Every structure is written in C-alpha cells, then in structure tokens.
Amino acid sequence: MDTTFDDPGAIRRSMRAAQRRRTWRGLLLVGPLALFLLAIFVIPIASLLTRAVDNPEVIETLPRTLRVLSHWDGRATPPDAAFQALAEDLAHAKSTPAAGELARRLNYEISGYRSLIFKTLRHMPIEAADAADARAQLIGLDKRWDESAYWSVIADNNKSWTPYYLLASLDLKLDANGGITAVPPNTSAFQEIFSRTFVISLVVTLITLALGYPLAYWITSLPKRRANLVLICILIPFWTSVLVRIAAWVVLLQREGLINSALGNLGLISEPLPLLFNRLGVYIAMVHILLPFMVLPLYSVMRAVPPSYQRAAISLGSHPFAAFWRVYVPQTYPGIAAGSLLVFIIAIGYYITPALLGGAGDQMISYYVAYFTNQTINWGMASALGLILLAATLLLYALYRRISGKELALN
C-alpha cells in the first residue's frame, strides 16, 4: 500500500521538487534572452557609464611624479624631486598614446595645459645632472611650471576615480579644500541645458496630453471598425523614418513653406511666420512624433471604463461635465500617468529633432552627449551627462511606480 499521501513530509518534499522543476524550466526558457540582454545591453551601458568616474590618465602616465607630490603641501611650488620625476615620466610617455590622453585630461581642468604638455614633450628627454637642474630646465622651458596651480591638478588626480566629470556636468567643482563649489557664472552652462531639456519635455508632454486625451476619448466612442481605422492613421508615424518626418516638417515650416504660403494666400499674415529653427518648430515636430505614445496608453485604459458609470451619474442629477470630470477622468488616471511618463522619458532623450529644427538655444542634453562623444572625444563628460539623464529617468519611473502603487492600494 502506497503511504506517500499519508506522510506530510513526503508531500512537502514532492511539492518542493515540483516547484524546483518549474523554476528550472522557467530559467531555461528565460535564460537565453537574459544572457542576450546582459551581453548586448546591460554590460555595454554599464561599461560606458563607468567612464563618468574613470580617471586612469594621470596615475598611469605620471606615477613617479605622484609619489613625490604625495608629500607636497600644495602651497608653494613642489620640491626639485617633483621636477625630476615629471621629466622622467614625460620622457617615458613621449611618442605613446598615453601622452595625448594625459594632455587632454589635464586640459579639461586648466585651459592651455595641453599645449604645455606637448611643448614639454618636444624637448624630452631633458638631460639633467640633478633634480635642481631638471627644475631649472623645465621652468626655463615654460614659466607655467613654476606655478603651483599646474602641479595641484596633477596632485589632485592621484586616484583611479574622480568626481570631476559628474560635478562638471552639474556646473560644480572641488575647491582647494576639497569642498564642492559652483563654477563661475560665465562658465556654467549645463544646469541651464538640463533645465531647458526638462522644460521642453514637460511642455511637449502637456501638449500631447491636451491633444491625445480628447482624441483617445473620441476613438472609444467610435464603432470598432472605425476606431481601428483611426488607430491605424495614428500609428502611421511609427512606419516612417524620423529623418523623413523631420524633412517633411522643414518643407512645411520654412519661410516659403506650405504653412506660410497657405496663411499668406488666405490673407491671415502679411509676412512669413518664424516657424523653423526655433523652439516652436521643435515643439511642433516632437508633439507630432510623440502623440501616438500618449494616445495608445489612454485608449487602452479608456476602453476598460464602463460608459454606464457616467450615464448613471447624469441620471442622478449630475451635470454632464461634472460627471465626466468627477466620474470618468479619475478612472483614466493610470493611462494619463503611463502616457505622460512614456512621452516625457522619450522626450528628454531627443537629439535629432532639436538639432535639425531648433536653434542654438533649443538644443537638449542629448546633443551635448553626442558632441562630447563625437567631436571632443571627451568620454568622461559624455558618460557623466548620460548617467545624470539615466538617473533622472529612473527617478521618474520610481516615482510613477510609487504613485501607481498608492492608487491601486486606494482602489
């Protein structure tokens, strides 16, 4: 007689074994996709973001100089041994890629440091009888080697990581005492660029919400066949290249474009309106591109709202507008939150549209990420700006999850 089902312990072991088998089957199904995402998406992004704090140039190229400067108080010019160590380090770095990377890294902190390094490298190796002779030759070569500020930059980069890029991307810097201070007003720019990015994204989100909400509401009132036709029309931008859409907007918005020509022929304007290469053109194009991302979440939520609720409120004496505002709209809050979050997150990462349709004062933070990546080859600043943008996105997503979780708890 089988006594398995009479033994509670055996039943528990059998259930745990079955659960383990289901878990392993699930892992085998999900594992290849997880490994693919890890290798193609997670690891490259994590590797790129580490550039925001990576600081290998000085410690790898000037190790002898850093050892001498570790005992330097940072006030007067360093001792003679530091000059000799610097001459030896630069002599070893001459004609190697490390020399150019060192010059570029130091030039980020003091403008003109690049020319100083290359000027010194052209005279390497310096034949010095002793440390005092090396000091005299370096100062004779360029008076800047007699200024403590240039040595302080080397001494401050004695670690393999640095907060320099992250602070610079927020218009901050470390002072002589190690505290965080703001950079001079005439050199600060990134706080304004971040503010501009969030303002443009917020305005685009509000406009798409104002246009998308009544559109989604109207689609829910249509018969299924007509609603599907309207949704296909809304989804047409997804099937068109972004560059093609932007080129079309250039044709429409330019001074002699279709919009200005039509308004002029109707007698509504006496001269062409400035619709291109300004903030208005950026808003128009971004709203057109992002409107489907607002309509689809709203429509999916509105379809699930029973119309009988609103009719019941009206039958009980409520004004139609009050019934719509107090009964219908609160039930669409999840769609509003999802659509707004989706549009806002996509908008803050926009690059092509502001670059082609906006002016110099309309560029968003992604433009400067591309600028530091492709033109100045400053991977540290590009990674720092990208890291801050990613952190803002994750913060917004966490806020959305928190708000949506509270809404579900209240419901």
UniProtKB/TrEMBL annotation:
Keyword vocabulary terms for this entry: Cell membrane, Membrane, Transmembrane, Transmembrane helix, Transport
Family named by the database record: Belongs to the binding-protein-dependent transport system permease family. CysTW subfamily.
Subcellular localization: Cell membrane
Lipid bilayer topology: Multi-pass membrane protein
Transmembrane domains' residue ranges: 26-49, 198-217, 229-252, 280-301, 336-357, 377-400
Cross-referenced PROSITE patterns: ABC_TM1 (PS50928)
One Pfam family here: BPD_transp_1
Protein name as it appears in the record: ABC transporter permease
ABC transmembrane type-1 domain: residues covered: 194-400
SUPFAM superfamilies per record: MetI-like
InterPro entries: MetI-like, MetI-like_sf
